[in-house]
Design brief:
Pfam families: IU_nuc_hydro. Helix content is 39%, strand content 17%. By secondary structure, the protein is an alpha/beta fold.
């Protein structure tokens, strides 16, 4: 099993990422929560709720950053519902949150388990950026980091050019990209390929498995958000794909790019800018600061099957 620290802002697709991980060999050492889809206290409660529904009540949840490093807090309830779980009437768990210093907990766990943990970050990167400031050796202490974030060479979703997780805290994202670790950036150029086919949605809708029934309940709101974009009720699997590639990197092939985050542009702030020109030789060291690994070819059909398998659909 893959030992994972999941840093999340639990809304609908974060919930599906937890379901995917639990059903495909993830061992959640801890979940840390940041602002993003919803305020951090809502995301922390949702994280506990999803874990408990999956029988993972032993996984501690630590709340963290309540706002970005250098800009006002913005959230996305219009995408995830006011409660972050699609306003589907999911009964919230009353389990206590384990702590409220997520960045410090990431550092503590990395020091306790050097070389063992993979960080999967599916929300704004404030907690990870703070952890790097607390412990600059963090990249040496973890196996790697997989980020759902960025939009390399494609339109954004939070702005014309900015993907939401990076756009919600560009300074933190730049800290993460500049650190000397192998950063797998799972951005919109890849996640937008994962549109669920009607047959997959039917399998979720008709499955008697409680995991599928939970996912189907929270999906209704999400399908409505994506319907104007695709002309039918469907969605893409942003956060579940990041989880899938952390667990099964062989689902894709990759290439290395030099990249950075635009911090000053009036309309481009939060954009991940990668050098796609091909003038210079491509980087060869994934741990070179400012280098990211991006997906080249993705086995979408196998990924969909893994996702459905995780919920018995």
């Amino acid at each position: 099993m893959t030992a994972i620290i999941l840093d999340c802002d639990t809304g609908i697709d974060d919930s599906m990422a937890i379901v995917h991980g639990a059903g495909n060999g993830a061992r959640f050492v801890a979940c840390t929560v940041t602002h993003g889809n919803v305020p951090v206290h809502v995301g922390a409660r949702n994280t506990v709720t999803v874990l408990d529904l999956l029988g993972l009540s032993d996984v501690p949840v630590h709340a963290g950053a309540a706002r970005p490093m250098a800009q006002p807090l913005l959230t996305a309830e219009w995408v995830h519902g006011q409660d972050g779980l699609g306003d589907a009437g999911i009964q919230a768990s009353d389990r206590e949150i384990a702590g409220d210093l997520a960045a410090a907990e990431i550092v503590r766990l990395a020091r306790l388990h050097p070389g063992e943990l993979t960080v999967v970050a599916v929300g704004p990167l404030t907690n990870i950026g703070l952890a790097l400031l607390l412990e600059p050796r963090l990249p040496e202490l973890v196996r790697g980091i997989v980020l759902m974030g960025g939009a390399v060479g494609v339109p954004g979703n939070a702005s014309e050019l900015g993907e939401a997780n990076v756009w919600h805290d560009p300074e933190a994202a730049q800290l993460v990209i500049d650190a000397p670790w192998d950063v797998l950036l799972v951005g919109l150029e890849t996640t937008m390929r994962t549109v669920l086919p009607d047959e997959a949605l039917q399998r979720i809708a008709t499955s008697p498995d409680p995991r599928a029934q939970f996912v189907w309940r929270i999906l209704h709101h999400y399908l409505g958000v994506y319907e104007p974009m695709f002309g039918r009720r469907t969605c893409v699997l942003h956060d579940p794909l990041a989880m899938a590639l952390a667990l099964e990197p062989e689902l894709a092939t990759y290439r290395l790019l030099r990249a950075g985050v635009e911090l000053r542009g009036e309309r481009s702030r939060g954009q991940v800018v990668a050098d796609l020109r091909g003038f210079d030789a491509p980087p060869t060291d994934p741990r070179e600061p400012g280098v990211v690994r991006v997906v080249d070819v993705l086995d979408v059909s196998t990924f969909h099957e893994r996702f459905l398998r995780a919920m018995g659909a």
